[in-house]
From TrEMBL:
Protein family: Belongs to the NAD(P)H dehydrogenase (quinone) family.
Any matching Pfam family: Flavodoxin_2
Species the sequence originates in: Rhodococcus sovatensis
Protein's UniProt keywords contain Oxidoreductase: yes
SUPFAM superfamilies documented for this protein: Flavoproteins (SSF52218)
InterPro entries, per database record: Flavodoxin_fold (IPR003680), Flavoprotein-like_sf (IPR029039), NAD(P)H_dehydrogenase_qn (IPR051545)
EC number(s) stated in the UniProt entry for this protein: 1.-.-.-
Lineage of producing organism: Bacteria, Bacillati, Actinomycetota, Actinomycetes, Mycobacteriales
GO molecular function, a single term: oxidoreductase activity
Keyword annotations from UniProtKB, A to Z: Oxidoreductase
Top EC group: oxidoreductase
Record carries keyword Calcium: no
Superkingdom, natural source: Bacteria
Protein name: NAD(P)H-dependent oxidoreductase
Length: 258
């Protein structure tokens, strides 16, 4: 299988860097092909601007229109076009990053902003009418996995932990990026207490990551509800009989108790 590994950490000798290197070696030795986007090493530009689309700077920039026109006309910036090629070829996408301020680092957000443009990540019409999103995007058929680390313990991102549950923290990425564009979302891999990890703890983290990678194409994905699967009304609001009396991000999954 072809796997795109998007790595986001400024230090390649970090815990994250060591886990990435071990994971890539493990995957390739298992017969997979791994393409990497090491954003810091690439010097990735995270800022959307008119140059991304060959847009005339004397004219007002409408990002959605300019990006879709550039995609259609083949005038996208070369670095964006390269990432599109990697994504099209990938059977699975892994985003690896440290959890900074409850989200992804800015450079990774900039990768998302510049790469998932109209006509590629959103704004894609169905032949039968309506828009393809939430389980029905161009990335349908691919699998997606987050590998993340945090300084706090795993207890702080439990259901009643002070930081909120991990699934809630990652909902904008897992549901709003992966699932929105059609990718099947796998439960994330978390390495907690990263700044205090011991040698034994590293071995455990590496082993966990390898096990999850080995089952990446067989594990059951998170059962997010499809936009066009009948659970939502014409306003894209969850029908009242589904998860009646409940609210919040968990109602958009069909997990037991959601």
């Amino acid at each position: 299988m072809n796997i795109l590994w998007v790595f986001t950490h400024p230090e390649s000798r970090s815990l994250n860097g060591s886990l990435r290197d071990a994971a890539v070696t493990h995957l390739t030795s298992s017969g997979h092909t791994v393409e990497q986007s090491d954003l810091y090493r690439m010097g990735w530009n995270p800022v959307v601007d008119a140059a991304d689309y060959g847009h005339d700077s004397t004219r007002r920039l409408h990002v959605d229109t300019a990006s879709s026109d550039a995609l259609r006309n083949g005038t996208l910036a070369a670095d964006i076009a390269d990432e599109h090629k990697k994504l099209r070829q990938a059977d699975a996408v892994v985003l690896q990053f440290p959890l900074w301020w409850f989200s992804m680092p800015a450079i990774l957000k900039g990768w998302v902003d510049r790469v998932f443009i109209e006509g590629f990540g959103y704004g894609i019409r169905r032949d039968t009418g309506g828009t393809r999103r939430y389980g029905d995007g161009l990335m349908a058929g691919k699998r997606a996995l987050i590998v993340t680390s945090m300084g706090g313990s795993e207890h702080t991102v439990s259901e009643r932990g002070i930081n909120g549950s991990l699934d809630e923290l990652l909902f904008p990425i897992q549901h709003g990026l992966f699932w929105y564009t059609g990718m099947s979302v796998l439960p994330p891999v978390l390495v907690p207490s990263a700044d205090r990890i011991t040698a034994e703890g590293y071995v455990e983290a590496e082993s966990l990551l390898h096990r999850r990678l080995d089952s990446m194409f067989t594990d059951a994905p998170v059962p997010f509800r499809q936009q066009n699967g009948g659970d939502y009304d014409e306003r894209f609001v969850l029908r009242p009989e589904i998860s009646a009396g409940e609210s919040g991000v968990r109602v958009h999954s069909s997990l037991p108790g959601a």
